[in-house]
Amino acid sequence: MSIKIINNTPAVIRKINKLTDDGKLDFVQKCKDIIKEDAPKDTTTHASEIDFDEPKAGSFRLFSQAGYGAYLEFGTSKMQAQPHFAPGINKAISEFQDEGKWGE
Questions:
Q1: Were 28 and a residue from 37, 47, 60, 88 both cysteine, which residue would form a disulfide, CB within 3.0 to 4.6 Å?
Q2: By CB neighbour count within 10 A (0-12 exposed, 13-18 middle, 19+ buried), where does 103 fall?
């Protein structure tokens, strides 16, 4: 069995950069909502601490303020990874495509 990895990051970044500021805000809000919904529920505060900000105009940053979001996403030597940020962003990309919001 072989595995083929396809990196679509550059194409997605080009699509995001073509969005208006309102389109970018819509996209990051969709990402946040999906990530919060898919976040592991066996933690006390992580899902409620997922948010985004706009450090500079038209540039958004998604993050968890819980302090252990990276451990959940990537795992540790004692804990299996529970990815939800990367899959949530991929789901948002697909939904934007399905809804025709990329402006193509």
A1: 60
A2: exposed
